[in-house]
Amino acid sequence: MLHTAVLAAFEYQEHELPIPAxxxxxxxxxxxxxxxxxxxxxxxxSRRHAPSGDPEAAQHQTSTGSESHSGGHxxxx
Length: 77
Fold this sequence. Notes:
It is elongated and about 85 Å long. By secondary structure, it is mostly helical. Helix content is about 55%, strand content about 0%.
């Protein structure tokens, strides 16, 4: 009974949204698609930038061309 009295005493005021509700969903979808594209653009970055302690990476950094790669990498066929 007290709960009903509190609800009746509380005056409910409805506020209009500044833009239609569907636009909030569209904005959210666009933001997530943008963030997904940014994340996707970083794929395989770690593979392109090998650590400097890697012996193969050191060979690639000092190599000037195919003269040091004539036999290929050992163990890779």
